[in-house]
Amino acid sequence: MRWRGRWPRWRIGSNIRGEEAVSEADCIFCKIARGEIDVEVVHDEDDVLAFRDINSKAPVHVLVIPRQHVANLEEVGKLPDGVVKRLFEVSSAVAAEAGVTEGGYAVRVNNGRDAGQEVFHLHMHVMGGRKLGMP
Ligand code: AMP
Ligand code: ZN
To answer: Which pLDDT score, from 0 to 100, does residue 25 have?
Structure first.
């Protein structure tokens, strides 16, 4: 389908791959950002929050999220530029705080089905403390 500047009506409520959009009221990371679900917060500021992943895949595994709900990288343009920058800066700060800057760490965004994205609120995985391969 050729892009005509806006989605047709049937697309409203779904994203580009036809996945159901999750409202901010129902989104688990929005609930975390509002303090409605307990998490281990490692960094807290106005627009960005970082907390430990509940199912850690590495000795250091932190999720960095914008407080504003955006589902994925296709929606990253909705975030103010400064917030996008802070997502990277906070990822670096979290890695430094965890002591993995020297050893190295991975910052990963799972985007969409093939990447295994489970939570449709944009987030960066900051992982370190062990050798990490690709993917
Ligand atoms: P993904 O969408 O695949 O990039 O990953 C979502 C991540 O969120 C997974 O690594 C989950 O372990 C993590 N996660 C889901 N619910 C929570 C929660 N309540 N607290 C912390 N991490 C969570
Ligand atoms: Zn959300």
So the answer is: 84
Note the pLDDT tens digit of each residue in 5-14. Answer: 554 444 445 5
In the chain the domains, ranked by start, together with CATH numbers, are 23-128 (3.30.428.10)
- pTM of structure: 0.89
Kindly give, in sequence order, each residue whose CB lies less than 8 Å from that of residue 103, ignoring residues fewer than 6 positions away. Answer: 128, 129
What is the number of the ligand 1 atom nearest to the C-alpha of 55?
Answer: 12
Ligand 1 mean position, distance from CA 55 (Å): 7
Q: List CB-based neighbours of ion ligand 2 within 5 Å.
A: 27, 29-30, 69, 121
Give Rg (Cα) of the chain: 16
DSSP code per residue over 20-31: BPPPTTT-HHHH
